[in-house]
Amino acid sequence: MMERVRDEGNISRLESLFDRYRGIVPKEVLVKEDVLLKGLNFSEEALKGEYQEKAYYLFTFDPDKPEVVKRRARIVPQEIRISGGIWGLRPTIIQSRHSSNSPYTVGLMDGKKVLLLDGIPVAEVEFARRPVYYGTRLSNGMAVEEVAPAIYWGETADVTAFRICEYWGIGGQCKFCDINENFKAWGGLREGVGVAVPKGLVAEAVSIASEDQGVKRYLITGGSIMDGKKEAQFYLGYIQAVEERLSRRIPARLNTQALPPETLGKFYEAGVDYYHPNLEVWDPKLFSLISPGKDRLIGRNEWIRRTLEAVKVFGVGNVSPNFVAGIEMAYSDNFPYGFRRVEDAVKSTAEGIEFLMSKDVVPKFDTWGLEPLSWFGRAGVTPPPLEYYAELYVKYLELKVRYGLPWPKGLGEAGPGISKAPATGFMDMDK
Questions:
Q1: Which of 101, 165, 322, 424 is deepest in the core (most CB within 10 A)?
Q2: Measured between alpha carbons, how far is 82 from 76 in angstroms, rounded to an integer?
């Protein structure tokens, strides 16, 4: 057990929130969200040894620019797990988001990794281990993790099939997103593959990963294609190619735009179990401003209609559109549209959650990572306070119970000390 030497501002602030939300929001959720918001620094000593390095294949999620992160001697771990410490935390898995200015640092003390907050050790730390299938070579000589890296503490084989988004070409990209900039900075991690990973390589990689007993599911994701029919054909081809090898050995998650209902049955028949037509933000005005490409080519009302129709195909609990939690509070001189008060932001998103849950849709969240090369990053917006996440998750749990819905399926088990969802704390809430 670590001994507390002195108190500091960030520790006092967290402990005041522990008291405020005692019995309502677990300490683990508050610490996790704080780390996700502020990012993590790492000492060079802590980065020695073997661990699973972060896969920069979709977004960076980092508060630091890529050139800062790439100056490190090593790529940082994909995820960390904190536990114990001065607050007696249950094991909590957190996505690594590199920030050299964060008050949180992973360092070494007496040869053990610890999480330091303002220089004070607050928790013990483990890095995600390299999955067993890492290092296996595909038929073209690439390592399998270059195509299907692991997330969710090794439980999900994650495939970014299309590594850019076409909305960027018309200035219609989502304002929180840095997918194209991420490809420019980190595309060399899969040198020679290009923006679209060959279907055969994906099928081979997922097949190998699925033989690892720790892998519980796989995810096919990637950027948007402006022609909706082409996008449906593109991603359907990946599911079909994988399932020709897997024959539904493990469940499949699909993350795309809201697809036309007439195409959804093809995905279900091909083997998709869990569908994520990510809505991003509920407020109609903010949707049009934050996701202009989606608004122009599909439209918010049509997006919602398609999401509701998807429940008829995939079933209750299997349709989980994502909200990027916090972007409704994005605000600056360059973007004076976000909610200024926590209660207003939570009320807006809760209205969306309730509407969707009343129709048997179970939304999910990722905590907003303010990437400097996203539109928001360049516009100088600020992230929401920690209280926003506590209030949002309390409301989510209340609505989930009211409508008698399960946790979003495909994300693994929920609960403090149990959840392996790395980029959000809502799955760490008490059931």
A1: 424
A2: 16
Q: What is the mean pLDDT of the chain?
A: 96
- Nearest-CA neighbor of 274 among 264, 285, 282? 264
DSSP E strands, 76-169: 79-84, 89-95, 104-109, 112-117, 120-127, 150-151, 156-162
pLDDT tens sequence across 140-182: 999 999 999 999 999 999 999 999 999 999 999 999 999 999 9
Report the C-alpha gap between 416 and 406 in whole angstroms. 16
Burial zone of 1 (CB within 10 Å; 0-12 exposed, 13-18 middle, 19+ buried) = exposed
pLDDT at 8: 57
3-class DSSP assignment, residue 28: helix
List the domains of the chain with CATH numbers. 9-127 (no CATH), 144-428 (3.20.20.70)
CA angle 55, 251, 291 (to 5 degrees): 55
Asked whether the predicted pLDDT for residue 7 surpasses 50, the reply is no
Any residues with CB less than 8 A from the CB of 402 and at least 6 apart, and which? 357
Global pTM exceeds 0.85: yes
Q: If we measure between CA atoms, which residue out of 424, 257, 221, 256 comes closest to residue 326?
A: 424
Q: Name the token pair of 389.
A: 């996440």
